[in-house]
Amino acid sequence: MRAPGSAVISVRRISVFLLLFVALMPLLARQPLVIVPQMGKYPLGLHSDILEDTTGNLTIQDVRSPQLAAGIVHDFKNPITVIKGFLELAEENTTSLEKRHEYMEKISHEADRMSRIAQDLLDFSRGTVTLIMEDVPLSAYLDRVQIVLNPYFAPRQIQFSVGFDQDGVLRIDPDRFLRVFVNIAGNAADLLYANGRFEIRVHQQEGGGIFIFELSDNGPGIPEAIRSTVFEPFVSHGKAHGTGLGMAIARSIVEAHGGSISFETESGRGTTFRIELPA
């Protein structure tokens, strides 16, 4: 069996590699990004530098901007912060072997999550989503959702709650579907102030055919100018970071599960995203 110290050293090497990868992302983001036409319609009014090349592909010129590079890095920042935190805890002399193994598992989980985020971006660029389906108890899954999303809201003093009417079994890819919650919650957290509110409510239609997820906030609402293109790629408004891919990726994941996603919004009152998912 590997000694605890060697496990910490191994994880440190992984962490350094991840940090180096993120440091190189701005350089990678300066390369031209080609989007194939079958991925959907694009908000041409928001990107005046979109050109069509001789192959019929759409090339978005402004992806070389520092803002896009910062957005890509931001997607990886949260799991890296978690990895560094647990790594520091694991290195403390007072940490027991049992706790150290627990921290190693959490680090491994976050590294896996980073890999899935990267895969989301790759899948989106290819126009495909690959799912690994599992039967997951609703209550246990919502516990996981709450743990993952709480760091988005607690430091900002935003009220966050999760609830459901009755337990059931979801047929989902748990990691991919979690990305839907992360993308919606991340957008809400960027726009909510202290004493804001974000809540997730889940119920099942009579007869048990469809799970309905409602993710609601009391923020400023989605600007009218982008409401018709919220789920299109590279749409962003009022955020200092982000690629504008979050909601497009969320929609692709939901639809890959055979579900649908929609929203209702009102200026100054907030937004509710509604996801309908087959049982």
- The gyration radius over C-alpha positions equals 20 Å
Amount of helix: 40-55%
Largest sheet: 5 strands, mixed
Q: Indicate how many domains the architecture comprises.
A: 2
Following the backbone from N to C, one meets helices and strands in this order, namely: HEEEHHEHEEHEEHEE
Please state the overall shape, judged from the principal axes of the Cα atoms.
globular
Which structural class matches the secondary elements? alpha+beta
SSE map:
Layout: H1 4-29, E1 33-35, E2 50-52, E3 58-60, H2 66-91, H3 97-126, E4 134-137, H4 138-153, E5 159-164, E6 169-172, H5 174-191, E7 197-204, E8 210-217, H6 246-256, E9 260-266, E10 270-278
Parallel strand pairs: 5-7
Antiparallel strand pairs: 1-3, 2-3, 4-6, 7-8, 8-10, 9-10
Helix pairs in contact: 1-2, 1-3, 2-3, 4-5, 5-6
Please, could you describe this protein's structure?
The chain has six helices and ten strands, in the order H-E-E-E-H-H-E-H-E-E-H-E-E-H-E-E. 27% of the residues are buried. Helix content is 46%, strand content 20%.
